[in-house]
Design a protein that fits this description.
By secondary structure, the protein is an alpha/beta fold. It contains nine helices and ten strands. The chain has a six-stranded parallel β-sheet with strand order 1-2-3-4-5-6. The chain has a four-stranded parallel β-sheet with strand order 7-8-9-10, with helices on one face.
C-alpha cells in the first residue's frame, strides 16, 4: 500500500490559502523521512489561483522552487482545477521538477476536462484526477466517467471517501442537508449502503407556500418522489412554512393544517416546526404539531 498525502495542500485551507516556505519544506522532509513519497503541496486552491485573488505566502513558482531539492526523493506535485490548466502552467510544473499534477473538476464534467488532461500528459507528467462532489453522480455514471478519463490519459482517477466517515463513526450524529427536490436526494445513493434504517431519520422539510407542496396531495407526491430517489422512507416532516421576512405566526398555522391532513393520510408525523425568532413578533400559536425549532439568520443579507 502506498500513501498519497495531500494535507500539505488541502490542509492549508485552515490557515488561508497556503503554508509558509519553512513549514512546507520541513513537512516535505518529514513525510519523506516517514516513507510517504507521494506528496501534494502548494496553494490550497490550486495552481493559477494566486494571481486570481487566492494569495498565499508563496506564488506557485516559489512553492515549486522551495521543494526542488526533494523532487528526486519522491513524487511531488500540485493541484490544479481543470479550467485553470494552460500549457504555460503545465510547462512551469514540468520544468521545475514536479512529477505529477492532480486535475480537479466536478463529477460529470470529465468530457470538458479531457483537453486539460492531455496537456498534462503531453508534458510528461503523471496525471491524477479528482472527481469533485462525486455524490451528484450514480456509481454507474462515475464508472463511465472514469473510463473516459482513463482513455484521455488519466493515471489515477479518484473520489473522496470523506462523506462516509460520519456514517461509519457512531460516536456522533450526522446531518445531511439535501437539495429541495428529488434530484438533491440522489446524493444519498453514495452512502445508503452504509446507513442503518433503525438509526436514520429521513425528514422532509415542507414550506406549504411553495407551489408543489401547497396542498396535502402535493406534499404526498413530493414525498413519494423523494423516497424513490433516496431509497429511504420519510420518517417525519418539518413544518417550515414561511414567506422569509414576511413570515407571521399565521403562516405556521396554515402549514400546520395542511401537514396534519398529510399525517392523517400517511401516518407520518410532523417532528419539528422551524421558524426564525427575530421575524415573529407575535406569540407562536399553541397546539402546533411537532417540537418548536427556533432559528436565527446567520448569512442571509437583509435585502434577501
Amino acid at each position: 500500500m502506498r500513501l498519497f498525502d495531500c494535507t500539505l495542500r488541502d490542509g492549508a485551507n485552515v490557515v488561508g490559502n497556503g503554508f509558509s516556505k519553512e513549514l512546507t519544506v520541513s513537512m516535505v522532509q518529514a513525510l519523506l523521512d516517514c516513507g510517504i513519497d507521494q506528496i501534494e503541496l502548494g496553494n490550497a486552491k490550486g495552481i493559477g489561483s494566486y494571481e486570481n485573488g487566492a494569495t498565499a505566502p508563496l506564488t506557485d513558482l516559489e512553492y515549486m522552487q522551495a521543494v526542488a531539492p526533494f523532487v528526486k526523493k519522491g513524487r511531488l506535485g500540485m493541484f490544479i482545477l481543470a479550467g485553470m490548466v494552460t500549457e504555460e502552467r503545465v510547462k512551469m510544473a514540468a520544468e521545475n521538477g514536479l512529477q505529477f499534477l492532480r486535475v480537479g473538476a466536478a463529477a460529470g464534467d470529465g468530457k470538458g476536462s479531457v483537453p486539460a488532461v492531455k496537456m498534462v500528459k503531453a508534458a510528461g507528467l503523471y496525471c491524477r484526477y479528482s472527481l469533485m462532489k462525486a455524490y451528484v453522480c450514480t456509481p454507474e455514471e462515475l464508472a463511465e466517467e472514469a473510463k473516459l478519463l482513463e482513455g484521455a490519459g488519466v493515471d489515477v482517477p479518484a473520489v473522496s471517501g470523506a462523506m462516509t466517515t460520519p456514517v461509519t463513526d457512531k460516536s456522533f450524529q450526522y446531518v445531511v442537508d439535501l437539495g429541495g427536490n428529488d434530484v438533491g436526494t440522489l446524493v444519498l445513493g453514495r452512502i445508503k449502503p452504509l446507513l442503518d434504517p433503525a438509526e436514520t431519520d429521513f425528514l422532509m422539510v415542507v414550506n406549504t407556500y411553495r407551489p408543489n407542496t401547497s396542498t396535502p396531495e402535493g406534499v404526498i407526491e413530493q414525498m413519494e418522489n423523494l423516497e424513490v430517489a433516496a431509497g429511504l422512507k420519510v420518517t417525519g416532516f418539518i413544518n417550515n412554512t414561511n414567506l422569509v421576512r414576511e413570515t407571521t405566526a399565521s403562516c405556521l398555522s396554515e402549514g400546520d393544517a395542511i401537514l396534519r391532513e398529510v399525517t392523517k393520510r400517511t401516518g407520518i408525523p410532523v417532528k419539528y416546526v422551524s421558524y426564525v425568532e427575530e421575524l415573529l413578533t407575535e406569540d407562536i400559536p399553541e397546539g402546533l404539531a411537532g417540537e418548536l425549532f427556533p432559528m436565527k439568520f446567520n448569512m442571509r443579507k437583509t435585502w434577501m
